[in-house]
């Protein structure tokens, strides 16, 4: 950031003669700021309206930060190094996948800005980065809400398929039964689990949408108002039941009865766009059911593959656990990306839960097998 007269908030915290180490760090900062600015501009090209303006505003802020490092670098601001690998991946994902995953990752990047502890950055730049994290968090939240229906069912359907069928197969393997029995058990678990998950998601999402419709205010007050008795009516009770204070409820009731002029169009109090947004967040019952069925089946088939290929005994169990482990790392990483958390930590957590469940069922199966024998 460059100004003819800098305020304390704008001034670098340390204006000593730059060292080679500082120059290298500033050049890296400048490359990263350029990469982030391009990222936000790339995302803005895919958006319209308010989101586009917000993203362009973030890009403009990164441009100010670029200028700060250019001013410090002077002649050293040429032939910059490549931006950090994290920024390169973000830029690539922005072009391929769009904004949802990218904004979740950008939220983490903004939250890990080094400017708070770097005396060569200004206090204002550090404050900017903190605000940028909140802006990106809000934009990412919009994307997460749009994915919350079918995508939620898909991710958790796949995870449930992986864990439940692996535990089922490994548990049966622990009993010492033949591979054919284990294979048939795995296929049965796949079909039963996928159908159960699909039915459960359908009922859950349909019930949630019906609940939203049942609790949303109707236009009964508007239709009934012309025929109500001015002195004896229950309009005040309607508005109090909706959460208004007694005074506000009385004033709204008198507006409906025509005693006071209302500066709003009462027909717009039931906003169809708001209804559509609520339903979009919940998602379609059929989409959730279909996603849950398909992805549960995909997850559940993975631990069965070794048995389909003819593996037996402990070898089949180990290969099945390894394949499921890789898949669990993937589903955990996806959940981590969307939640703005560490993909590695979420992946390891999913791995621990899945293999832990398999280990417990294998031990139980072993005990059961010995008992039956």
UniProtKB/TrEMBL annotation:
SUPFAM superfamilies: Ferritin-like (SSF47240)
Polar residues bias spans: 1-20
Residue stretches spanning the membrane: 181-203, 288-309, 315-339, 351-372
Organism: Nesterenkonia halotolerans
Disordered, as annotated region: 1-25
Extent of the signal sequence: none
Membrane topology category: Multi-pass membrane protein
Keywords annotated in UniProt: Membrane, Transmembrane, Transmembrane helix
Chief place of localization: membrane
PANTHER family with a match to the protein in the record: FE(2+)/MN(2+) TRANSPORTER PCL1
Subcellular location as annotated: Endomembrane system
Origin superkingdom: Bacteria
The UniProt record lists the keyword Glycosyltransferase: no
The protein, known as: VIT1/CCC1 family predicted Fe2+/Mn2+ transporter
């Amino acid at each position: 950031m460059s100004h003819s007269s800098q305020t304390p908030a704008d001034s670098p915290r340390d204006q000593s003669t730059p060292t080679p180490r500082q120059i290298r760090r500033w050049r890296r900062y400048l490359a990263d700021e350029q990469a982030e600015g391009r990222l936000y501009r790339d995302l803005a090209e895919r958006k319209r309206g308010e989101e586009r303006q917000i993203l362009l505003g973030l890009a403009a802020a990164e441009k100010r930060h670029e200028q700060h490092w250019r001013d410090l670098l002077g002649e050293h601001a040429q032939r910059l190094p490549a931006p950090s690998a994290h920024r390169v991946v973000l830029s690539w994902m922005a072009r391929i996948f769009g904004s949802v995953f990218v904004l979740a990752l950008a939220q983490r990047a903004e939250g890990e800005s080094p400017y708070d502890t770097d005396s060569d950055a200004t206090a204002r730049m550090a404050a900017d980065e903190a605000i940028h994290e909140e802006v990106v968090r809000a934009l990412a939240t919009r994307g997460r809400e749009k994915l919350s229906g079918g995508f939620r069912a898909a991710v958790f359907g796949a995870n449930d398929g992986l864990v439940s069928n692996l535990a089922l197969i490994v548990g049966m393997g622990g009993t010492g039964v033949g591979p054919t029995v284990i294979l048939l058990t795995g296929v049965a678990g796949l079909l039963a689990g996928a159908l159960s998950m699909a039915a459960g998601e359908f009922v859950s999402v349909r019930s949630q949408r019906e609940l939203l419709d049942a609790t949303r205010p109707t236009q009964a007050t508007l239709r009934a108002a012309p025929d109500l008795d001015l002195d004896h009516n229950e309009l005040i009770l309607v508005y109090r039941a909706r959460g208004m204070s007694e005074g506000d409820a009385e004033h709204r009731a008198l507006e409906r009865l025509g005693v006071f002029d209302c500066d709003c169009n009462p027909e717009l109090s039931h906003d169809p766009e708001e209804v559509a947004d609520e339903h979009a967040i919940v998602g379609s019952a059929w989409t959730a059911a279909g996603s849950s069925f398909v992805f549960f089946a995909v997850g559940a088939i993975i631990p069965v593959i070794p048995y389909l290929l003819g593996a037996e005994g402990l070898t089949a169990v180990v290969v099945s656990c390894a394949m499921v482990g890789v898949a669990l790392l993937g589903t955990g990483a996806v959940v981590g990306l969307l939640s703005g958390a560490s993909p590695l930590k979420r992946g390891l957590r999913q791995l621990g839960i899945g293999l832990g469940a398999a280990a417990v069922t294998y031990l139980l199966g072993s005990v059961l097998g010995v008992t039956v024998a």
